[in-house]
Every structure is written in C-alpha cells, then in structure tokens.
C-alpha cells in the first residue's frame, strides 16, 4: 500500500483553482502507484479563509467543489483525504473544518476537526463547531485514523501542560496509520519541534504517522510544508521539500528513506520563508513587481535582497531619496547594493526642494519653536509620498523596510517609512537583520561592507544615529524578547538584574506608546511565535503597565 503526501500551495478563496490543482495532483499520485493520497487542511479553500467563511455562498461553493472533485476521481484507483469546509447541520456554530475521504467517485466519510485553536493567529472557534467523533476507514488491509492539525498537538505524554482537556487519540478505536491534515504556520525552529513531537507520538502509540502540511504563504502566514512519514519506531522515513509544493509517495509496509534535504539553521529558514512570503503575497494579489526605498542602510538592503530573490531582480524598483542630511556613503551604498543585486530599475529623487517647500508652508505655524522630531517626520512622510506615487504609477507592490526592534518601540514614522503593503522584515529584530545580512554575504559581497559596519542611522538630522534615541540594539532586543515573547512584566524585568531598570522602563513605555502605530502598519510576515499583526491584540486606549499610554503622532 503506497500513500502520497500531496503538499499543495492553495490560494485562499480560489476554490475552483485549488480543486483543479488537487485533482491533478491526486491523479498524478495514483499514476505513480499510490493507493491513498492525503492533502493538507482546508486545501480546497486555502488556509486561513477567515471571514470568507461568514458567506454561505462561499461555503456552498466549497461543498460543491468537494463533490465535483470526488466525481473527478471516479475510475481512478485511489482514495483521497482532502481538507475542506462544510455546513454544520446540527447544533452549535454553523461550520465544520472537515477531512473528506473520497473514493469511487463519491465522498465516503467526513471527519470534523476536534481541537479548534484560538491562540496567537488562530481563531477557529469563531467559525467552526468542534467534532466529537473519531473516524477510522479501511483500505488495502490497513486501518487509517483521520485527524486535522491541532488534533495531534495535545499528547499528555509529550506536553508538560496540554492546552485542551482531552486528547482526541485517547480511547480511539484501533488503527494502523495515523493521518494528519495540517496547515501549520512556519516559525523559525518549529520544524525540529514538529518532528520530535510526531516521532514521539508514533513511537508511543506504535503506529505509522502521515503528516501532510500546506506549503506557500497566505497574507502574513507562511507555511513551510515539510510533510513527513514516521514509522512505528518513531523514525522518519520520508519528508517533502520545505517551502515548496511537493508530492512524496511512501510504501506504508516497507518505507525506504526519502527524506528531502533541508537546512534547519535559522538564517536559512528565515531567508527561504521571507522569500516565499513576499512572492506569494504579491502574486496571489495579482501584482508581479515591487518597489521600495533604498537608504543605504541595513534594513532596506536586506529587504531589497529578499525581494530580488523572491520576485526576480528585474521586477524590483528602488528609489533613492537623499536629503541634505544623507551622507555620501549612504547614497553610494544604495547604488552599490542595486548594482550587486542587478535591480531592474533604480531612480534617485532628491527631497531637498520638497523639504524647503514644507518648511516654508509650516514656518508661520511652527513660528520660533526649535526644530525637533516634527521636522524629521516631515522628511519621512515626503519619502513615503514619493514611494506611494511610484507604486501607484507603475502598479507595483510597495514594501516597507522597518524591523521588529523599530516597530516595537515606535522608532518609525506613521505615513512615512511605514507606508507600504507588506512589512517584509517586521518580525526580525535588528540584531537578526545583521546576522541574516552576514549570512547572505557568506559567499561574496551582496550587501556592501560599509552598510554592515556603519552605525545605524535614520539620517533625519546631521550626525544622527539610532543610539541617540535607543539603547544599543543588543540590549534593546534582549529587553524586547523578554517583554514581547516571554511575557515578562516591566517590573519583573527591571528587578531581575539582567538589565538596567531605567532602560527597561523606558523601553516598556516606548512599546506601549507605539501601539496605535502598529494597528495601522502594513501586514508583517510572521516568522516567530509572536509577531505583530493578527496574533498581537493589545488595546490602545487603556490604563495598564502592559498596554499603551497616550503618545504624540509621529
């Protein structure tokens, strides 16, 4: 009995297109000898469909497409297990997250996902009613148990503190092979955890485990694929490609090692994930070219390198916008970067005249008040306006270049450098930006050396550096990790002895004050367990040591 792990990259909402892709992949798997084909969670709708699920016509289209897919497999000697959505015709929420078993031209069985996550980026209880029954079906003399994603993430023997009251596999009817249809978002380092967990599950229960994950990216979520097969001894005998569509056929009785080569180092994972995130975000939105500002700094350099790799250098338009305060080396670094990457187009537009014009317009209002952040932010907003103009004129996707350190503490200008449709490196701390840039340069200079070594600066006033306003990035990023990811309170962190208490309280105050900016920011490609976006739900107008205080618009 051969099983195909059919790792697809669906587009959210493109039910007909996803169904055609599924049909072609299952037919190809059957032609390759597979008697069973397993597809990812919600592979007909794409994951996550979010509030498209609130439209009954959308759900009806998915139900119809599932029936049509089943009929399309009539005459093909294969059973397909496909993730989709359907109406709940009983009590509870209106929908079910389903795994449909198709065979002989019809849907023979339907399993409803039993554990519905509501943490971080997940909000499945908003739409779905949880299933309450297991499903075991037989084929080729084997018994197959069907589960969907979260259903296998609650093993009491593996997790010190399981999140749910019950494990769907406890008390389960006997089975030989566990099937798990997943849409498990990527984060750096998560694959090692997945493999360890699935290996432990297969070994403890003495069964074979088939895990099929979505590949591709939808909005800010990136899916790394890496679908896998584990024997009853816990050994992994097959793994599909990372960050790409793939189909792996494995003999369930006598599997031979078919483990795709992969690099689980953080920089390699990050590079591939962000490239996939940019490419799918643009192409699934119907836009094939991008633009961004090139400042000569490390953030725009890394963003440009990712964009060139993802979209093709010919499809990247860079705009250099020097001001009177821009250093000569920054302009040269931007030009050198563009040459190294061979960007399709680079234009230089000085903002000096625009700064003078805005200064003249605001002079009667500002009067004799000394220059401060207000004038600096006008510069950033001039650049944002120019970038938006280029994006509009040429139909390009504008990429923002801010990193997680800056976004955390509000060291960015709303309607200025925050303009854009996608925050490519918005889930990378500044120290991580430098590490990834160094990794890119490991075999030759792509990002200019002076970009790597000069002090980071927004160059909005003469001689400015980031450390005029912020702690050194090593210190800042350490504090931010504790506050944002490990959920340490400012008081706990200040009294812990690892950081200067005054710096901790300053950083915490900046994080709180910037919440209104983040609410208006571009979507951030998620590569960690805590990114800004749908998984970060802080109030703006409240009074708490953990939440924002009122800040001036900047």
- Structural class label: alpha/beta
Percent in strands: 15-25%
Radius of gyration: 26 Å
By CATH, the topology of the largest domain is: Nitrilase/N-carbamoyl-D-aminoacid amidohydrolase
Query: How many domains in all?
Result: 2
Q: Estimate the mean pLDDT confidence.
A: 95
Percent range of helical residues: 25-40%
Number of strands: 20
Low-confidence stretches: 548-552
Output the number of helix runs: 15
- What distance lies between the first and last C-alpha atoms, to the nearest angstrom? 63 Å
Can you summarize this structure?
It contains 15 helices and 20 strands. The protein is α/β, with parallel strands linked by helices and 554 residues long.
Descriptive terms for the model:
single chain, alpha/beta, Nitrilase/N-carbamoyl-D-aminoacid amidohydrolase, Rossmann fold, 2 domains, seven-stranded mixed sheet, six-stranded mixed sheet, 15 helices, 18% strand, disordered C terminus
